[in-house]
Amino acid sequence: MLTELPPVAPATGAGTAAWLLVALPALGAAVLFLGGRRTDRWGHLLGTATVLASFVYGAVLFVSTLALPGEERVRDLPLYEWFASGSLSVEFGLRLDPLSLTFVLLITGVGSLIHIYSVGYMAHDENRRKFFAMLNLFVASMLVLVLGNGFLTLYLGWEGVGLASYLLIGFYVQRPLAASAAKKAFLMNRVGDVGLALAIFILFAQLGTTQYTEVFARIGELSPGAITAVALLLLLGACGKSGQFPLQAWLPDAMEGPTPVSALIHAATMVTAGVYLVARTHPIYDLTPTGQLVVTIVGAVTLLIGAIVGCAYDDIKKVLAYSTVSQIGYMMLAVGLGPIGYAAGLAHLLTHGFFKAGLFLGAGSVMHGMADETDMRRFGGLWRHMPITFATFTLGYLALIGFPFLSGFYSKDLIIEAALGGPPVRGWLLGGAALLAAGLTAFYMTRLMLMTFFGPERWRSLTPRSTPWDPAFEASTPSEHGEHYHPHESPASMTVPMIVLAIGSVGAGAFLVIGERLGGWLEPAIGPVREVEEAVIPTGLVPGIASVLMLLGAGIAYLTVGRKPVPVERPARVALPVRAARADLYANAINEGLIARPGLWLSRALVYLDNRGVDGAVNGTAALLGGASGRARRTQTGFVRSYALTMLGGSIVLVAALLAVALP
Amino acid sequence: MSALLIVLVLLPLLGAAVVGGLVKAGRDAAATSSGFVVALVELVLTGVAWGLFDPAAPTRFQGESSVPWIPAFGVSFSLGVDGIALAMIALLAVLTPIVIAYTSFTRAAEKFPDDRGAGGFVALMLALQGVLVALFAATDVFVFYVAFEVMLVPMYFIIGRFGGARRQYAAVKFFLYSFLGGLIMLGSVIGIYVASGTRLGQATFDWAELQRLAASLPESTQILLFLGFFAAFAIKAPLVPLHTWLPDAGAQAPIGGGVILVGVLDKVGVFGFLRYCLPLFPLASQTLAPLVLVLSVIGVLYGALLAAMQTDMKRFVSYTSIAHFGFIGLGIFAFSQQAVAGSALYMVNHGISTAMLFLVVGMLAARGGSTQIADYGGVGKIAPVLSGLFLVAGLTTLSLPGTNSFVSEFLVLIGSWPREPVYTVIATVGIIFAALYVLWVYQRTMTGPLRGEAVVGGGPGAASARALAGGPGFADPVDTDPPSGTGTKARFGDLTGREIGVLAPLVLLIFLLGFFPQPVLDVINPAVSATMSEVGVPDPVGPNGVAR
């Protein structure tokens, strides 16, 4: 079915300066990168101020757009011609519509909070200025990604956030694991980028343009096969960026980055870019049921993988990372369902932005007070020592597992209802996966809560492990990292952002979903929300069933983790499913075995071939002709001889050519 | 403007003579300074030529001039530039002063073998520049051929006199490969001259006349003549499997020589495809396109995989270039406006990014006394500016959007797709490998804990002792050993102001051409359109995507 697209108007009023949204954080990044040590003292303040300014301007744009009638809310702001040759003209411009403005508010809003949090979190790091420069670079790139008015500007932002992510994952530059994780993230993202690039090639070849307005208006001219191909290639890009199956393995490794990075980039914003991409290109997906089906399958598989693996990890950040993989799986599933799911997926994206960023910041706060420890087996009973962290974390936890009337409850419900809709087999499979993962989510998150905040204080009898690679650790005072753990509450610059996000975790769901506030606002960009018609389970029962599954998961966690002592050392003898989950369901092993090792063998063979084969043949021929000359150091004589031989050879060719020309 | 082109040829040649004279007189400092001034004047004059060039002009060549040279054979010393040639001359004009400044004025300045001063190197650089300008501006095929052969001489001496430990081997290998290619080309040059005699009544070397003739040549003749030119250009470019001279030459050349060798001199090959193979032999170009496309795509992957496996950084840079030349070859023989324009722009951008990469490697090697990757580790900790600029060089090498290389690579791929989808997909996969080889080298040298002989071993001395024993020939650039106990950071040292000054113009160009490439494309596009119409293949994507 072809979606009715609203007309695209040129931007007016406050919208004409929308480039400032990007320019402010970009300027901050440039000043901090180029300024060097001179900007150390105030660099973090500048970084925070520029993102805050972008947020304020974004809010102004939002309000001014709200004042417009619905059909005038989609606007374009062309800036300049980026590059052109022949029939290809790539315009650098911005698309201002409810979808992009929603992301602007999310990125700059959560971005501001995390900048503020980082002022405290990174206070002891000698490279704090660089950290803020990279964060600003990220915000600017992410804004280009969501604001761009064509596929090339999208691609610019797409790889820009990839660079920022690479830099920030590898921020602890002394740490070998961080460098490996950063490279892995960039490479797996590039695999996705190939898909995105090929999709753009097809669009250009078929339509002669890469700008959204023309592509979406004329997408119906493509053959169904071409549309499906474009949709699947775009999905490959989305899988890379969003850590979706089969490109999910980089995201948990990305936790090597500082925790505010995990919160902003690897939970709230960048990794949701794949969901944005599908929503943005919905005119393409709406025309290809096959493409949509594949999106939903990828989402369903990923949400299960994430939830299963999340149950097995002991590292607090990795559990949250797999939780992110799983939750983005929900969003992908939703946007793959088409008009019944777009608003639901985006609602979950926003509520997830609040509660998952809050959870990561809470994890960072725990680490801050626990000598950068991330192993939950070494935690326990922390609620007494960090009450604000505990309270905000608990609200985020409840929102994530879908506790009634908190954020996740509303947004996840919408997705489950939409997944249950449609033909019976598909409805049962997709809806069943979504429901099952809801129970698993409650299990792994309850396990995390119990191991971290409740139970005996296992850290009392332990000494902190040294982390000599971490500059922040070196710089901190010895009393903080003495022979024992000294858990403490974090400073206000860290707790205030956590409190703000906790408020969002509680209220955002109800605010966005009740009365279809978000759906109505987004309608000009993604089309009207369609109601679920025939679901395999009556939609009225879904909240109840999901709540029962949630209680079941939490209850099992309580019985297996809360009621028993938690060993500090991780048990080695475990059942097969646990072992599989601990090994990320063998995702890395498969990548290693299928791609990395054969690639290395091939490369080694090529090096051998290049030295012995290609070059050897050349040197051998030279030696044969020139009487073993050219190779070694007796080059002077060899030179003359080879020279003479070459002349001879050249002359023969010359004569042959002359003859050949003279013949006809 | 016609006088200006002649000045652009003669000024560096005269400058080379003056600098050479000063070197003979033993005044090395005066020689390098005056050489630098000459290169700057050349840059300014090139800027004037760029300003005078009118992209909207109806003729292909501008600033044409012609002086009879060997009237008996119809040879004239004829000059004139189209947008592609002008872009290459501009690239050379930008890189030459940078290379001279790097070699003469920075701490990284290499100590050349046998205590040679930099003056001789500068003289050779200027001579090379003069010859190359003549080569790009030649509108007479014989002048082009002469310049093609003559340019080997200064480069032979740059490698052979100022290079690393195995410089003799590398210089001879470079010379033989190129000279052999040149002789084969000579066969075709004479062949087309003879053909013009029989068909036009008056034999000529004039490019425009020959181009008019070309269309009427039978395909079999075109193929033979094409192959003669192609052999020379494929060696120069280089395409796999004719590439093996490049890693040796690139690794043994002094850094500045490597910049010009890989950045500009190799471009003569792909420039030759564009200026000579396509317009003079359109039928042969179409018939043989699959051959070139296969070699190009192999080059993309082969160069990338070998780059990833290299242990020496200068060889690494050479192999990345082989991969990039694959992209350029693909774009040229995909016969579409975007792909060919992308290739022409790629020639400029690759010159900038390779120069950046070579220079940063040189600055690193000047500190550690080695170009072996394994001798370094964790440099980012002690030299953050060097490491940051190394990353910038890497990012433009992997064609990150926002850097110059992205625009050209994307144009090549998006333009090649409509006609050659299979080759385009394979080449696009190459962008993953590009990320792999760049980031892997960066990871091994710049991140992690401090390690490696060049960093924590006995300092530059230890690694350079090893280097002299058979590795690359970098002498210790630090005259006196600092007092012990100053720490690795102080001994190694970050980039100096002068070194940053050498790199700054390149960094500026990388981002400027990343976001605002259109002024260069505007100059290139008309020449590309002319080439396309000479080949006679319609653009695969018309306005509004009407596929033809």
From TrEMBL, chain A:
Keyword Isomerase: no
Domain NADH:quinone oxidoreductase/Mrp antiporter transmembrane: 151-430
Keywords: Membrane, Transmembrane, Transmembrane helix
Record's bilayer topology term: Multi-pass membrane protein
Entry-linked InterPro entries: NADHpl_OxRdtase_5_subgr, ND/Mrp_TM, NU5C-like, Proton_antipo_N
Domain of life: Bacteria
Ranges annotated as spanning the membrane: 12-34, 46-68, 99-119, 131-148, 194-213, 219-240, 261-279, 291-312, 319-340, 388-407, 427-450, 496-515, 535-561, 643-663
Subcellular location: Endomembrane system; Membrane
Occurrences of domain NADH-Ubiquinone oxidoreductase (complex I) chain 5 N-terminal (ranges): 82-132
PANTHER family recorded: NADH-UBIQUINONE OXIDOREDUCTASE CHAIN 5 (PTHR42829:SF2)
Protein name: NADH-quinone oxidoreductase subunit L
Automatic annotation (TrEMBL), chain B:
Subcellular location: Endomembrane system; Membrane
Keyword Membrane among record annotations: yes
Membrane topology note: Multi-pass membrane protein
Transmembrane region(s): 35-53, 87-105, 117-136, 142-162, 174-195, 223-242, 254-276, 288-309, 316-335, 347-366, 378-402, 422-442, 500-516
Protein name in UniProt: NADH-quinone oxidoreductase subunit M
Highest taxon, organism lineage: Bacteria
Annotated Pfam families: Proton_antipo_M (PF00361)
Keyword annotations of the record: Membrane, Oxidoreductase, Transmembrane, Transmembrane helix
InterPro entries recorded: NADH_Q_OxRdtase_chainM/4, NADH_UbQ_OxRdtase, ND/Mrp_TM
Species of provenance: Actinomycetospora termitidis
Its EC number(s): 1.6.5.9
MF GO annotations: NADH dehydrogenase (quinone) (non-electrogenic) activity
Residues of the NADH:quinone oxidoreductase/Mrp antiporter transmembrane domain: 138-431
Record-stated family: Belongs to the complex I subunit 4 family.
Top-level taxonomy: Bacteria, Bacillati, Actinomycetota, Actinomycetes, Pseudonocardiales
This protein's record includes keyword Cell membrane: no
